[in-house]
Specification:
single chain; 123 residues; alpha+beta; five-stranded antiparallel beta sheet; two-stranded antiparallel ribbon; 2 helices
Length: 123
């Protein structure tokens, strides 16, 4: 059985959704569901430990209503070096469709981040 990881989600009107991605890249996280990453993306970002998730939330405490949930990864995880700096759909489209990171602003992912093709939401 895979080890539990931690996902940071935004909560709005009782719904939990991606804290980082917007538009078509935004995913909803319902308890006891398996959530799959959109094809052609890096995957679903999770944190290896609660510490890294809490650190991410504390750095963005004024931005959203963030919550940490426990998830179980599905599939093989990977580390990535760069992600899109901006979360708007147009930036994410350019980042993913051409995958030319030099054509848009990029950044390193937050510490402790892993990407998986899917996750099972435990809470």
């Amino acid at each position: 059985m895979r080890r539990v990881k931690f996902k940071v989600v935004s909560v709005s009107h009782g719904r939990r959704y991606s804290a980082y991605a917007e538009g078509n890249y935004n995913l909803y996280y319902l308890k006891d569901e398996i959530v799959r990453a959109r094809e052609g993306t890096l995957g679903i970002a999770v944190f290896r430990t609660r510490y890294f998730a809490e650190r991410f939330c504390s750095e963005r405490s004024m931005v959203n209503r963030l919550k940490i949930i426990r998830v179980r990864p599905v599939g093989r995880g990977k580390n990535v070096r760069i992600i899109s700096r901006f979360t708007c759909p147009s930036s994410l489209n350019r980042f993913y469709e051409r995958y030319r990171p030099y054509s848009i602003k990029t950044m390193n992912p937050p510490c402790g981040t892993m990407f998986y093709p899917a996750v099972e939401v435990l809470e």
